[in-house]
Structure formats: C-alpha cells, structure tokens
C-alpha cells in the first residue's frame, strides 16, 4: 500500500518552523492584551446560512470557495472561510451587545477556502483577527490600523505600505454600483469571463480583476470616492487625518474594494513588496451593517485579519534560521550516569532552565556532535565517574571552556548560573 500524504492545499507546520508561529502569536497576544482586546474562540464550522447572509451570496468566497457539506443530520455545514461572521454570530447569540459600551475582541485559528494553492495561500490557512463592535467613531478605524501596524513593526517587518479606500454607506455604494455597471456594460464582451459574470451580481469585484484587459478597461472607471455622501466623506477625512496625526503613511487606492459584501466606509490593506503576487499581509475595514443583517441590533463595527502563512514567509526572509536557544544540552552515558542525568535535567527544568536531554545512548562523540547543533548555550556531561562523585561537567559551547561542579552546587547556584547563561545568549 502507498503512503498517505497531506491533502493538496494543506501543509504540516514542522517543528523548525513553529518557533516563528509562536513568536507571532505571543507578540499579538501581548500587544492586543495591553490594548484591552479580549480573545474569543468560535467553532471552526458553522451553519452555511451564516456565511451566505454575512459575506454575500454573490461573492467568490460563497459562490466558489467554501467547503460546504451535509452532516449526518442533513444540515448544511460550512468550514469557516473567514473569522468575522462567526464572531458576530457569537456576539449576537451570547448577548455581548447587552453589556453596553465597545466590545474589543480578537481571535486566531484556521480558515478554509477552496482556492488554487500557491506560496502564502493554502486551502487551510490561519489568521489572527480583531473586531471592535459598538463604535462608529473614526478613531476605532484608526485604532485597529495602528494596532496592526504595531504588531507588524514589533515583529520587524519592513517594506510595508497601507492602501486605504472608502466604500461609503449602503446608499453611496448602491449609487456607485449603478455608475460602475453603466460604465462597464459597453465593454462587457471585452471583460474576462469572471468579470462578465460579476457585472450584474457584484460589479465592484471587477475592479480587483487580475486580467490585463479588464484592468485596462477599469482604469477609467468611475471612482467610488467621487460618489461619497457628505457624512461618508467626513468620516473618511477624519480617518485620514488621524492616520497623519499618528505618523502612519498611507496611499489612497480607489480600486480597493475587498472581497466581502459586508464592508462599508473604510477598507484597507497592509501590503508587502517582498511577497510577489500574494502581497496582502493584513486586510480589513468597517462593516456597520453586518450585525443587523445577522439578526442583532444595529451595531457599527470595524476589524481586520492578518494572514499568518504570508507573515511567516516574511519573517523567514528577515531572520533566516529559527534555531532554538536552549540553556543546556545534557550528554550522558553509563548505567549510573543516564538515570542521574534524567533526574538532574528535570530538576533544572523545574528551576526554570530550558534543556534537551540526549536519550540516544550513543557514544559521547556522537552526543557532542548533536550538542554542537542544538543551539544550546552550554553542555552538561555525565559519565559514570561523574555519577559516582555526584558531579557534572559544564561546558560553555561558545568558548569550549569546561569546569567540573557538584550537582548540588549546580542547583543551588541557579540564579548566578542564569545570569551567566543570559550573558552568553546576549
């Protein structure tokens, strides 16, 4: 029988890569916690109607990309293609709106879309996202953008730019939709097949087409910024001014419409020039009508999602190896030494040190070779002679300096040892 492989569009996150994921998650968790955002965890699958109503039946996500199936109770179930709809459903179902004020929520986890896999885009992919529910203030728009910027900068990302647009309110969007249809209809036969299909169903998505001829036609299309009401224009002007006040650079992109129907007013993307075709690292915007559309009270809201696969690719380009920085690698060989090494190693872990215990039982030479590759600051060596004398040899990997110390002294001087290890790490 042949081996079973991961399905196309999914991938294993191997141990040497997990350190990047942990760094991103820890950084986001710390920054979001300090900004009073609370984590929420929603199911990976939901009733299909949630996404049809929330995202929009005319979108590519609902029409082409969702993983939808009937469960054993003949209910239509969908693996979540994005995080916002599930958070809003939870916000309504659990009565979070009744708490009053502004709800600041964040989430992380896998999402699922049936797309053509490529670098930075998988059929199972992961996101970190935030949702601010209950504020129509332009400051909420800018707060979420600033927090995304803070996370990405803290991670050390460079070559990023913020593209921003306004989609106006529902009335603005409807007027613009008609203006766009009027402009594009004479060119219908020149548009690519997907855009011809979108012309009456979802014409704004034509502006996002990658087809060269369609892009040429769209260059002279009406701009949604020219169809904003006075209130919508005022909201957008305040957003731009607040970004300027914070020193966050941006560029207007009238073609930026995002792919989901629920967006209103501010829409934005954070883009990296280092990612090629799949360049968007973070995308989001305001969605003031979604909560009411899903059966809740009228609730203004804004949020974003960061694609972790693309972010990890950037981090790997920036920092190269994600090698661990262990405090100790423990080498032992001998009938008495090996049990003692296990006990000593566990005591050191309980004292707060990180270490790897070599369990191979192979010759010292092979264990030393693994110690050299481990990324450990120091190596602890126990043979039967050390076991008999209750000592251990401590070898600093950077200088190859070696000393013999009693096992008791090693544990009793943990604080001083911690300082020495940190000196080598830095």
UniProtKB/TrEMBL annotation:
Superkingdom of the organism of origin: Bacteria
Record localization: Cytoplasm
Catalytic reactions of this protein: tRNA(His) + L-histidine + ATP = L-histidyl-tRNA(His) + AMP + diphosphate + H(+)
Signal peptide start-end: none
Keywords, alphabetical: Aminoacyl-tRNA synthetase, ATP-binding, Cytoplasm, Ligase, Nucleotide-binding, Protein biosynthesis
HAMAP family the UniProt entry points to: His_tRNA_synth (MF_00127)
GO MF annotations in UniProt: histidine-tRNA ligase activity
E.C. designation(s): 6.1.1.21
Similarity remark: Belongs to the class-II aminoacyl-tRNA synthetase family.
Top-level EC class as recorded in UniProt: ligase
Statement: the UniProt record of this protein carries the keyword Protein biosynthesis: yes
Subunit record text: Homodimer.
Name by which UniProt lists this protein: Histidine--tRNA ligase
Domain named Aminoacyl-transfer RNA synthetases class-II family profile: residues: 1-339
């Amino acid at each position: 029988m042949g081996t079973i492989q991961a399905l196309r569009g999914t991938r294993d996150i191997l141990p040497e890569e997990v350190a990047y994921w942990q760094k991103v998650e820890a950084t986001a968790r710390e920054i979001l916690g300090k900004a009073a955002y609370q984590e929420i965890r929603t199911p990976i699958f939901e009733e299909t109607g949630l996404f049809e109503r929330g995202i929009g039946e005319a979108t590519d996500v609902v029409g082409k990309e969702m993983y939808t199936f009937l469960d054993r109770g003949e209910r239509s179930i969908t693996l979540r293609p994005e995080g916002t709809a599930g958070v809003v459903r939870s916000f309504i179902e659990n009565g979070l709106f009744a708490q009053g004020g502004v709800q600041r929520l964040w989430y992380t986890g896998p999402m699922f879309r049936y797309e053509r896999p490529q670098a930075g885009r998988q059929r199972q992919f992961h996101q970190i996202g935030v949702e601010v529910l209950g504020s129509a203030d332009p400051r909420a728009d800018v707060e979420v953008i600033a927090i995304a910027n803070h996370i990405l900068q803290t991670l050390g990302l460079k070559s990023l730019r913020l593209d921003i647009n306004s989609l106006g309110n529902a009335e603005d969007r409807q007027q613009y939709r008609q203006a766009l249809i009027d402009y594009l209809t004479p060119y219908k036969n020149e548009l690519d097949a997907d855009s011809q299909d979108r012309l009456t169903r979802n014409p704004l998505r034509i502006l996002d087409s990658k087809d060269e001829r369609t892009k040429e036609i769209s260059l002279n299309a009406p701009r949604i910024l020219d169809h904003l009401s006075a209130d919508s224009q005022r909201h957008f002007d305040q957003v731009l001014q607040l970004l300027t006040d914070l020193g966050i650079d941006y560029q207007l992109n009238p073609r930026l419409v995002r792919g989901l129907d629920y967006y209103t007013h501010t829409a934005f993307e954070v883009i990296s020039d280092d990612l090629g075709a799949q360049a968007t690292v973070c995308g989001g915007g305001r969605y003031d009508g979604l909560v009411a559309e899903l059966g809740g009270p009228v609730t203004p809201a804004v949020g974003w999602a960061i694609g972790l696969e693309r972010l990890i690719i950037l981090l790997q380009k920036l920092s190269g190896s994600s090698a661990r920085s262990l405090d100790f690698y423990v080498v032992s060989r001998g009938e008495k030494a090996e049990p003692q090494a296990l006990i000593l190693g566990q005591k050191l872990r309980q004292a707060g040190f990180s270490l790897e215990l070599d369990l191979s039982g192979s010759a010292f030479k092979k264990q030393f070779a693994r110690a050299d590759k481990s990324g450990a600051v120091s190596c602890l060596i126990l043979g039967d002679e050390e076991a008999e004398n209750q000592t251990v040899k401590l070898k600093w990997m950077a200088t190859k300096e070696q000393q013999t110390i009693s096992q008791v002294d090693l544990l009793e001087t943990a604080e001083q040892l911690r300082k020495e290890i940190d000196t080598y790490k830095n």
